[in-house]
Amino acid sequence: MRQTEILSTVRMLQEENLDVRTVTMGINLLDCADSDIETTAKKVKAKIMLKAGNLVRTCEELSTKYGINVVNKRLSVSPASNLLEGKNKNDALVLARALDDAAGAVGIDLIGGFSALVQKGITPGERVLMESLPEVLSKTQRLCSSINVATTKAGINVDAVKIVGDIIKKTANATKSDLGFGAAKLVVFANIPEDSPFMAGAYLGSGESDCVINVGVSGPGVVKRAIDRLLENYPDSSLDEIAEEVKQTAFRVTRTGELIGREVADKLGVQFGVVDLSLAPTPKVGDSIGEIYQAMGIKNIGAPGTTAAVALLNDAVKKGGAFASSSVGGLSGAFIPVMEDHALAQAVEDGYLTLEKLEAMTAVCSVGLDMILLPGDIKAETICGIIMDEASIGVASRKTTGVRVIPVPGKVHGEYVDFGGLFGAGTIMAPNCMVGSEIFVNRGGHIPAPIQSLTN
Description:
The chain has helices at 3-14, 37-52, 55-66, 89-105, 124-139, 158-174, 220-233, 239-268, 289-296, 306-324, 342-350, 355-362, 380-397, 438-442, and strands spanning 20-27, 70-77, 111-112, 116-117, 143-151, 155-157, 186-190, 211-217, 271-276, 369-375, 401-408, 416-418, 425-427, 446-447. By secondary structure, the chain is α/β, with parallel strands linked by helices. Helix 6 (158-174) crosses helix 13 (380-397) and helix 10 (306-324) packs parallel to helix 12 (355-362).
């Protein structure tokens, strides 16, 4: 990859206000394990301070050098459940506070990795971590959690889903004064990626280096403006011509992200991991995934054709990124976090975009049901059913799917909730049928891996 080519791309994109959405340092904490939780906590703080102490300063220096804003500087760690074997829920809170405090000390806004991988079974440490989440997520500020309940190879651990569905309800109720915001820091996955830099699902997988830099480059506004320019000059452009424009734009954006990521890694003396080119929106007008679909010609998001538009965008982004770099990873595609995207949120408010249509869209997007508000009185079993449906899409399609839903205590379908800032605002949604799956969910056990898993 030639430096001059990358710098040329940077100059071309600066006028479109491209930013690097996140530089995320992954840190392996397995060597911090100790029989005494206080000793473990001290080791965790010390290692994070050692590895990440200069992360924010380095990102800011490079932002100045290239004129590209690095919006978020974040951390992900190896699954915290590994440090909780033989421990209890009080110990989990001690560890969580150590992670939260260490992130704050190095100037980080969010830290991921308070995680458990339970797609096939649940160890005592993983159970402790999951059961501690309502207290942990209500008593920390920066800590995010992810639970992987399914993979294509293992199938779906319904017993784990039942625990998590109940935990989501309890976490929302534990943060009732904040409208259930604690649940926004918890995501449930199928086929979780080990190298995603985006929260709340970032963690450092077992196949990763001791310390690594992963970069998330977004840019939905850049893609939308590229489509607008194409259609201004060629208003009768076909969908394959729109896809080509998106692919070329994704190529340029990926090059920019890799430049920043490799320089951060080099200056900090750690390994560079991946560029995650995921079109992740913010609530700002002009920084929306939904606006891209509207630019393509989907006037009302949720109308017939919306799922095809998502598939077109997701595929074109992946193709452009894969051609630009051999280090594309994470999720890389198009997110549809409803609250964080003003156009999607408006479509929900207008009644065009339903939970069922969103589920269809997740079959071809890069994640799943994300940042969705639910009625506070929704049953835990109904949440479990939503998770199982979404996990089934991921397992059968051999792709990542996730569920991040927020049951808002005391609120009902149709009410409006505003979290402010990056997390956005939206209207509470509800499934077409709120009851009727309880017997199925409560059978528990395991949904076996599909025939697609037999690839050896």
